[in-house]
Every structure is written in C-alpha cells, then in structure tokens.
Design a protein that fits this description.
Shape: globular
Distance between the termini: 48 Å
CATH topology of the largest domain: Cytochrome Bc1 Complex, Chain A, domain 1
Helix content: 25-40%
Largest sheet: 7 strands, mixed
Oligomer: single chain
CATH class of the largest domain: Alpha Beta
C-alpha cells in the first residue's frame, strides 16, 4: 500500500471541520492509498448558545477524498488494511480543513525523529492554550469563602486511606479471595452517577484560590500554581526561579527527600510529579489515583511552605542545571523560542530565560533560594487546581494543609512592565538545518486584540513537508504558500504567546541552511499579507479555533493548565462556550486592524543551527514594509 503520511495517526483521535463550520471528532481506524479515511466512534460537536457544547454520536464515518460521507454499521473489524473502494456513501459538505487537528498530529508524530521539528514547534514557541487568551473579556469568578477550622487530629487521620511507608494495605476486602478457577468472578458493575462537570471556585482566608472540575476520571490531576518565575528575578539572583523549581519534592519539615520519593512511588505518582519554572509562574504538579488526594495535597503544600533547602541537596541539584541547559541546546525549537524572547524583550522581564546559566551557579545557595521564596510565595499569589476531584474534598485538604501554620506574608514587589524592544539574536548550533523565527509584538491579557490575534494564527496555520501531499488537508497560508511551494522547507508554522501585559506573535520555519534567505523572504511576505483576510478564510479560522478550544477542554492536562493560568494572571475563568461566543463576534475589520497594529511593532529575529545564509536584520525589516 502506498504511503499516505497518515500512518502515525492510526488509533489517534482526529477532528474534521467542514465548509459550513461543523466539527466532527473520531478515531482514525484505517485508510487506503487514495487517502480515503475511516473514522470510528465519530461524534459531531454542536455548539449551542444556551446549552454550550453537545455531542451527537454518529457511529462510523468515512472521509472519501475531499468529501465527508456517512456509512452504516460495519460488522467486520476496521483496520489499516481495509479496502474502501466498495463502500457506498452519500457526500456531505466539502472538507475544507481535514488537518485542523494539528496539535493531535504533532503529538502522534513526536516519537518520529523526522518529525521532531514540527511536533514541538508550537509547544516550544510558547503557544499557550487558547482557552485562557480572552479571560479579561469574561465575567469575574465568584469564590466561596472557606474559613480555617480547628479539628481533632485523630479524627482527621481516620479519613485517610490505609497507608504504610513500605506498602499499601487493602482498604476494602478482596472480593475474589477464595475463588477457584472454575468459578466466575465477574461482578455486575455499579452504575456510575454521571453528572455534568461543574467548575467550582473557593478561596481560603489566607488568600489562596482553589478551583476544580470533576469529570469523574479515575486519576486526579493536581496543580499548585505560584505567580513567580523568571520575570520577577533581579540582576542579583538571575536563574533563582529555576533553582527553586529544582528543589521541588525534596526534603521538607515533614518528610525527607527519600520518604517524599517513596511516598509518591507507592502512590504511582513519582513519574507524574514535576516542578517547573516558567516566565510568569512556577508549577508543582502531581497526577495520582483520586483516592490518594488526601495524602498528595499536604505533600505539595509542604514543598511550598516548608522546604528545608539542605546544603547537600542544593549542591546535588547543581548538575541538573547543566543537564537542563544541554537539553535546551539539543532541542532547536525550544532554543529558538528562548532566543526570540531574548531578542524581543532585551534584558528585561519576559526576556529573562527560565533556565539558570553557568554564571548563576555561584549564588545557587539555600540563602538565595529562601530569600526568593519569602519574596514571592505568599498564598495570595497561589492557585490550587484539581481535575477529577470533588471540590469539597480538595478544599477540605487544602484548608487543613494551611490551617496550623503561618504562611509566608505578602510582600509588595515592584510592578515592572514588560518592555518590547525587538532585536536580532543568532546562535550557531549542531543542527544541520537553519531554524528561523520572525516575531512581532501582540496583545497581552485585557486587550481587545486577543481574539483577532488567535484567528490570525489559525489563518496562517502551519505545515510540514511530510504532510503536504494531496488529501492531507493542510490548506492554511503557510502550508500552501511556503511548504508546498518550497521543497527545501521542512516545516513552517505560526505561533502566538500571550502574557499578562504583552505577547509575541510570529512565524517559525526550518529549512536547508543554504536556502535560509529564500525562506526568510517568504515568511516576511506571509506576515506582510496579514491585513488582507477574506470572509471565507475568517469563517474557516473561527471553526478551527473553536474546534481546538473544545478539544483542549477534553484534555485533563490542558484543562488544568487553563484554569490555573487564567486564575493566576487574571482572577477570572472563562469556559470554552464563553470563548466561542467571543470568537464568533470577531469581524474582518477587527482582524485587519489587529494585523496592522502588530506589523507596526519592531521586528524580532531569532536563528539557530546553520545560520550563515540568514539575511541581515535590516533586510528582513525592510521586507515587512
């Protein structure tokens, strides 16, 4: 069978947007050499202004060429060898964007070495989840006030599931004990009490915000967000946010490093427990079976309130700085993102790297880290988020974790606004390709141009040389105007990163090194043409953007990140349905005005790899005029 380029997506969930804006989601079960595609478990996502998003189950669907066609029940198993030539189907509306599922495609392709550049380009360039981009345009959240309660410790301990440091005990009797092999052990499953997920919000007396949504999943995803990060560093402690993150889940006043690791191991959460620093937040994250939430919440809070910062543990973490720097250098996409921020915000706020440098090692000490924690880790700057956990349960254990302790007092810190400077940063790297990004200043939170900016990103889209053939459905501007027209271009995609007071929009491309000048000229041309948007392009972009938002709402990790970042930076939370209304209200004139405003900012350029053929900054700047 001929290669279609869809092999990595088998058994993956993909989405299809039709010409009239209908969104279909299903699992890719098979395809033939003509790129006819079978979707099973297909659903149509219908957006209703009053009811939000409804799912209409359709069963088995076929994408035949450029048409979406419905097929009846099929008895035989669908697999990658199925011949679709004899399947009869009635064509519906033409499929205008079969590949609106770029995020899913990238996730499936990330294990393939040939697709590493495309699979990480959006994530590496900081495309934050779309759900939180317009939080300033949604109503403020009403928080339920939660008072601290003094409780009997013995009674509290009775609520915990049985746990031993070395092993777990059976919390319930084994129903299969004594069963022989000739006896059926199948039990009638208990019918779950399914209820629609509900977003709930609370706030403790000390100011920490708590948010949760229970989708009744088996594993709970917990995240403790702190409004800190590299932008709040000073010349005297550059890299300290990274250092603080490296000390996550080590020794605290309650548990040693060994006991912390062993506890998480016993709960099956050691690999899902991470602490990472960004530019505007530090995240402590754990994924664990939901019955062990009462253990994990105090453990996470203890890492924030009572880290011991033992000298030998701090010293042992010095090697992790070098490891993280080597990982960054070995990932060209992430490296370009870091360089572009340095160029766009030269020597200020968002231009400060989230990673510590070798120069920072001299003050990688317990005293430096503790001073940073005391300045930034007040409860008023924290948000605790839970997905697949009951809100009452989460609130209760967060309250208990803070009840008997004096939290870090709130300190006023200097409110330094991000200053967009524009600029040019280039670095030779081991990659044989040229990795080039052109950036412009975009909107931060609270500005009306956020929704138009996101739509412009969808209009530009992106594509890869491996997915540019007939039937791939990549019909965005960058795919049709650059990737398909330029055999030397490996991939090209648009990105947009939003922060609390600024943003970074642009195009990122990877090409053969000697053709960097040609690709740069084409990328500049794509940016220059942004103010001209047709009605059809805008309608398609709206459908794709809404589809992306609804898909992200189905992903626990994305949902937790959206809730935490919205509440942390804005104090508000907007659902996917609310954002869909904002998207629908955007006009062509607003998109054109937003594009012109971005083009009026200074150009930022970042290049990595073999950069000998990249044009000068002034040449690229002139190409945008």
């Amino acid at each position: 069978m001929a290669t279609t380029g869809l092999e990595p997506l088998l058994e993956q969930q993909i989405s299809v947007v039709t010409n009239d804006g209908r969104l279909f989601v299903g699992v890719l079960r098979g395809f033939d050499q003509s790129s006819n595609v079978v979707l099973s478990d297909c659903q149509e996502r219908v957006f209703d202004t009053d009811k939000g998003v409804e799912q209409v189950v359709l069963g088995l669907y076929v994408i035949r060429g450029d048409n979406l066609a419905v097929v009846g029940e099929v008895d035989e198993e669908i697999d990658s060898r199925i011949d679709l030539s004899n399947i009869r189907a009635a064509p519906l509306k033409p499929v205008v964007h079969f590949d609106c599922r770029l995020q899913t495609l990238c996730a499936a392709a990330s294990s393939l070495a040939d697709l590493a550049m495309l699979s990480t380009c959006r994530r590496a360039l900081g495309q934050r989840a779309s759900l939180r981009r317009w939080a300033a345009q949604v109503p403020a959240v009403t928080f339920n006030e939660v008072k601290f309660v003094k409780e009997d410790v013995e009674k509290v301990m009775m609520e915990l599931p049985d746990y031993n440091f070395y092993e777990f005990k059976e919390s319930t009797p084994n129903p299969y004990q004594g069963s022989t092999l000739d006896r059926s052990i199948l039990l009638d499953p208990v019918e779950p009490a399914l209820v629609p997920p509900k977003f709930e919000f609370s706030k403790l007396e000390n100011g920490i915000k708590i948010a949760s949504v229970d989708k009744q999943g088996l594993t709970a995803r917990l995240g403790l967000y702190v409004h800190a990060g590299s932008r709040f560093e000073t010349p005297g402690n550059l890299g300290v946010a990274h250092m603080a993150a490296l000390m996550g889940y080590r020794s605290t006043a309650h548990l040693s490093h060994l006991r912390t690791v062993k506890t998480l191991e016993q709960m099956g959460a050691d690999q899902a427990s991470v602490c990472k620093a960004g530019r505007e937040e530090i995240l402590y994250q754990v994924e664990v079976q939901r019955e062990f939430v009462p253990y994990v919440v105090p453990l996470m809070v203890g890492n924030v309130l009572f880290p011991r910062l033992l000298p030998w543990e701090v010293k042992s973490a010095h090697g992790d700085v070098k490891t993280d720097k080597e990982a960054l250098t070995g990932n060209p996409d992430s490296m370009v993102s870091d360089l572009l921020h340095k160029a766009a915000y030269c020597n200020n706020t968002l231009g400060l790297s989230p990673l510590a440098s070798t120069r920072s090692m001299s003050y990688f000490t317990p005293e430096t880290i503790r001073s940073y924690l005391l300045d930034n880790f007040a409860p008023e700057r924290m948000v605790f988020v839970g997905v697949n956990v009951a809100h009452s349960e989460l609130t209760k254990w967060v309250m208990r974790s803070f009840a008997d302790y004096n939290a870090i007092p709130m300190k006023k810190r200097e409110d330094v606004k991000a200053t967009y400077t524009g600029g040019d940063v280039r670095m030779e790297g081991a990659s044989p390709y040229c990795h080039l990004a052109l950036g412009l200043e975009s909107s931060g939170f609270g500005q009306a141009e956020l929704a138009p900016t996101a739509l412009i990103q969808e209009i530009l889209g992106g594509g890869s040389a491996l997915y540019s053939g007939v039937g791939s459905g990549v019909t965005s501007r960058l795919s049709t105007q650059i990737v398909k027209q330029s055999p030397y271009v490996e991939s090209c995609t648009a990105f947009n990163t939003s922060y609390s007071d600024s943003g970074l929009f642009g195009v990122y491309g990877v090409c053969q090194a000697e053709k960097a000048g040609d690709m740069a000229k084409a990328m500049a041309g794509a940016l220059k043409g942004l103010p001209t948007v047709s009605k059809e392009e805008l309608a398609k972009a709206k459908a794709m953007l809404k589809g992306k938002i609804f898909r992200q709402a189905d992903n626990d990790k994305e949902l937790m990140a959206d809730m935490g970042q919205q509440l942390l930076l804005t104090g508000k939370y907007g659902s996917a349905a609310e954002f869909a209304k904002i998207i629908d209200a955007v006009t062509e004139a607003e998109v054109a005005s937003c594009a012109k405003k971005m083009l009026g900012s200074k150009l930022s350029v970042a290049a990595f790899g073999d950069v000998h053929a990249v044009p000068s900054y002034f040449t690229l700047e002139a190409a945008l005029k």
